[in-house]
């Protein structure tokens, strides 16, 4: 694990709730991919759904199966973060049919979006030619994650795998500068600006997560 992500003792459950409920400003172009990770000696699948324009990770479920149910969950977690579903919503993915099945399933529930499938390693069709750059973006995200995950030599439990990827997402969205964003972080939080070290920014981010949970619990008492 990199020095920036040396976070084994951090309260990941609080971070998870904050990261998943943060009011992100999103585009209408998203890309997704799955990658293998080892959990308790067995291969699992990490599904990343990613705002290709804003460079924000929005969905990151870990599943023991690479199936339609997992794809539905991954895309649904993105839809839940939207204030409203854009008319021209696009998900760019690989040729796995689970994403088309997800599209058909959600269409039956009144949720429409387009799926652009980038097939293979070379551009043999117009869709792959047009959308491969977006697919390559999420493949780059997978490589970045693997660079942090690989030194673990696998994770010991499903809970541990979720905790690890949650902390990675918090780091990626709020703390890691991106070259494609002119060395800015995807989510610029005023409370994190000007803090001198990564440790200070991590500490403040966890504090913000704790405050958010307290506020949500207090609000629920008056509902």
From TrEMBL:
<protein>
    <submittedName>
        <fullName>Transposase-like protein</fullName>
    </submittedName>
</protein>
<dbReference type="InterPro" id="IPR012337">
    <property type="entry name" value="RNaseH-like_sf"/>
</dbReference>
<feature type="domain" description="DDE">
    <location>
        <begin position="33"/>
        <end position="139"/>
    </location>
</feature>
<dbReference type="InterPro" id="IPR036397">
    <property type="entry name" value="RNaseH_sf"/>
</dbReference>
<dbReference type="Pfam" id="PF13610">
    <property type="entry name" value="DDE_Tnp_IS240"/>
</dbReference>
<dbReference type="InterPro" id="IPR032874">
    <property type="entry name" value="DDE_dom"/>
</dbReference>
């Amino acid at each position: 694990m990199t020095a920036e992500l040396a976070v084994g003792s951090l309260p990941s459950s609080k971070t998870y709730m904050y990261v998943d409920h943060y009011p992100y400003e999103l585009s209408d172009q998203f890309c997704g991919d799955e990658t293998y990770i080892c959990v308790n000696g067995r291969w699992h699948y990490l599904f990343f759904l990613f705002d290709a324009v804003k460079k924000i990770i929005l969905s990151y479920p870990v599943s023991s199966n690479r199936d339609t149910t997992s794809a539905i969950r991954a895309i649904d977690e993105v839809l839940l973060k939207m204030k409203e579903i854009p008319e021209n919503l696009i998900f760019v993915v690989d040729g796995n049919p689970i994403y088309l099945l997800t599209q058909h399933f959600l269409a039956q529930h009144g949720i429409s979006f387009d799926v652009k499938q980038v097939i293979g390693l070379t551009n043999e069709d117009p869709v792959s030619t047009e959308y491969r750059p977006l697919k390559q973006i999420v493949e780059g995200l997978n490589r970045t994650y693997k660079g942090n995950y690989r030194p673990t030599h696998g994770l010991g439990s499903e809970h541990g795998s979720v905790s690890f990827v949650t902390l990675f997402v918090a780091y990626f969205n709020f703390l890691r500068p991106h070259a494609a964003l002119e060395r800015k972080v995807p989510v610029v939080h005023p409370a994190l600006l000007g803090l001198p070290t990564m440790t200070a920014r991590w500490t403040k981010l966890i504090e913000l997560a704790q405050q958010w949970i307290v506020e949500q619990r207090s609000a629920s008492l008056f509902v």
